[in-house]
Amino acid sequence: MKKLLTTLSIALLTVVLCVAFAGCTTNVSGKTYNYDEVVAESDEDLPGLGQAVVSKAKELVEEAFEGATLTFNEDGTLSGKVSSYSAGYWGQEGKNVSLYATSEMTTALLTFTVSGSKLVLETTQEGFAFSVKFVKA
Questions:
Q1: From CA 30, how far away is CA 75, in angstroms rounded?
Q2: Phi/psi class of residue 71: alpha, beta or left (left: φ > 0; alpha: ψ in -120 to 50)?
Q3: Nearest by Cα to 72 from 53, 40, 52, 99
Q4: Which of 21, 27, 39, 65 has CB atoms 3.0–4.6 Å from 131's, for a disulfide?
Q5: What are the CA-CA distances from residue 99 to residues 22, 77, 86, 87 (Å)?
Q6: pLDDT (tens digit, 0 to 9) for every residue of the chain, 137 residues total?
Q7: How far is CA 105 from the centre of its chain?
Q8: CA 122, CA 113: separation in Å to the nearest integer?
Q9: How far apart are the first and last CA of the chain?
């Protein structure tokens, strides 16, 4: 009886863990995401000119992504519009979603991280960081 109870407990725990971890990664296939916002952060000790450059760069990034949409078609193609890109291909490995110019998918143009209903593109340089966020439509 004890052996049966242990086996059932392990099986139940395995099912619960599988369900819990399945929710951690969102599959983007067949979904559309819309541009939401750009967040820029900079070190406080960045000189005044550096702060101005980060501020101007944020404005340029906002302009580039304003009105952008990404639709991850189930056939692996990408439609929508991001800056000057209007079509392409996509691939997903876990939480990382990469955009490609060609179907060979050798060099990613951009790589986003999926977090719940958001896609986040992050870049960090010495002294500042940018996050471009998209939300599921």
A1: 9
A2: beta
A3: 99
A4: 39
A5: 23, 9, 11, 10
A6: 333 333 323 333 333 333 333 445 689 999 999 999 999 988 877 777 778 888 898 999 899 889 999 999 999 999 987 766 667 899 999 999 999 988 999 999 889 999 999 999 998 888 788 899 999 99
A7: 17
A8: 8
A9: 51
